[in-house]
Specification:
With about 200 residues, the protein is mostly beta strands. It has 1 helix and 16 strands. The protein starts with a helix and ends in a 6-residue tail after the last strand. It comes from Pelagimonas phthalicica.
Length: about 200
């Protein structure tokens, strides 16, 4: 257990902000127990949600100044804090190194998920079936190192994705993400989308 605590404390320095968002797994929680999500980074704060004892690939947005609490999204329950002692970093689970991502928006709903150098899928406007894609690898902008771009192609469709490290707020629920995207779809019908991105678990294509 000490190695998990050491990890959490090492991430608490001023340089930690550049390492987020990042993926973590829950460790050290009994199989008959859960890990509480609290409204504020303190053990006396109300519990707003619970996470399974073995939950994996949880996206952490930041640590509090003490390095002991990790901010996460919890769906309709909104944002809350997990005790970082019970979190272990997923190897390579930081942007832009982590290959699996989802970007989407709720206005004129759209979403794209992709694995860098692998498969992808685009959905737009309540369409029942998505467009299969083959995704490239994120490239860094020549002047703005926080900006990255990727191109994905499918049958008669090309998608250009720009992703930036910037706080992005959901318009539907109390959630914020650490990545913002602009997506241009070039095909039979051209479209442009803006929304939020998150790191995700390896998909089953």
């Amino acid at each position: 257990m000490l190695r998990y605590l050491t990890l959490a404390l090492c991430l608490a320095g001023p340089a930690a902000a550049q390492d987020f968002p990042a993926l973590y797994n829950i460790v050290g929680v009994a199989s008959d127990d859960t890990l509480n999500v609290r409204a504020k980074p303190t053990s006396k704060s109300p519990v707003i949600a619970e996470r399974a004892h073995d939950e994996t690939y949880i996206e952490v947005l930041q640590l509090d100044p003490s390095g002991k609490w990790a901010l996460v999204n919890n769906g309709e329950a909104g944002q809350g804090w997990l005790y970082a002692r019970y979190l272990e970093a997923v190897p390579g689970g930081n942007f832009p190194d982590w290959p699996h991502m989802y970007c989407g928006g709720s206005e004129s709903p759209w979403g794209i998920r992709f694995t860098q150098g692998g498969k992808g899928e685009l959905r737009q406007n309540y369409e029942p079936d998505g467009y299969p894609l083959v995704a490239g690898v994120l490239r860094t902008g020549s002047e703005h190192l926080t900006d990255h771009g990727l191109r994905a192609k499918g049958d008669g469709i090309e998608v250009l994705i720009a992703v930036r490290k910037e706080t992005c707020h959901s318009t539907m629920i109390d959630a914020a993400y650490g990545l913002m995207s602009s997506v241009f779809v070039n095909g039979e019908d051209e479209s442009f989308h803006q929304g939020c991105c998150r790191l995700m678990a390896p998909p089953e294509w």
